[in-house]
Amino acid sequence: MKNSNGVNSGYEMKKSINLWAFPYPAQWTLKECFEIAKDAGFEGIELNIDAEGELSVQSKPAQLLEIRRLAEQVGIEISGVCSFLFWPYSMTSNDSDQRAKGIEMAESMIEPAQQLGTQNLLVVPGATFASWVEKAEPVPPEICDRRAREAVRRLLPKAEAAGVYLNIENIFMNAFLFSPQEMREFVDSFSSKNVRVHFDTGNIAEYQFPEHWIPILGERIQNVHLKEWDRRSAGFGLNSFRTLLDGTTNWPAVMKELDQIGYRGYLTFEYFHPFQHYPEALIYQTSDALDWILGRKT
What we know:
This protein has 298 residues and is of the alpha/beta class. The chain is 36% helix and 13% strand. The protein is globular, with a radius of gyration of 18 Å.
C-alpha cells in the first residue's frame, strides 16, 4: 500500500523522542515522562546525561538500574543516551584541562549507557567553533580533527568492553565533519564496529540535504535524530528548529533512503524546549507526525 506521497507504507523503524522535549525535571518526574511517551505511542525515549542530578555523570549504578527498571515497568525502551556536556567540555578545546575533562565526562557516560540498557551513546567528537558556548575559542580544522581522533581512540577500549556504540554526531554550526565523505572517513579510520554514526537530519539542513547523506553513510548509521527546519527561515540555531512536518525537510525522500540502507532502528525527535503551555501537546503531536512519516497513516 502507498500513501499520498507515493511511498510504501509501514516502515519498520521505531518511534522515539528525546527527553529535552519534556518539562523535566521542572514539572514532570521521569516516571511521568515515560508514561506520557508510552501513552502517546512512542516505543523509545532518549535520555540525557547532565553534570548533576537524578540522571547525571554522578548517578550511581543502582540509580541508573532503577531508571532502567522504571522504563521496563512502563513498557518503553531507552533508545540512547546523549548530553549537552560535550559543549562546555569539548574534547577538542584549546584548553588542555577542558579537553581532559571532556574525555573524562564522555568516558563516564559509557557504563551508564550500558546500565540503562542501551548500546547507543551519542558522541560529539569536537568542534572548530561553537558560537553559543561562552568564551569559546576557534580551533583550526586540522587540530580539531587530530584532537577528535585522539579522544575517540581514548574512549574506544572501554566502549568495546561494555558493548556500547560511540555514535559520532556533527552538531549544527560546529564546522567539523561537514560532509558525508568526511564523516564516513572519520568513522572508518577507527576500524571498529563500535564507532558508528548518529545521523541528525536537522544539523545539516541549512546547507545540505539529509537524503543525500544517508546513502553515503549507509550501514554506519546506528541511530537517528529527526529535527525539522525550514529553509525559508533566517535563523539556524537551538531555537530555530520546528516541530515535525512544519518545515521543508523532504521526509518521504529521507525515509526512502533510510529504508534502502536497511535501517531499522530508532527515529528520535529532538527538540530543545518543551511547550510553555500544555506540554503534553508536543508529545502527542510529534507521535502523530511520526506516524505519518513512518507510513502508519495513509
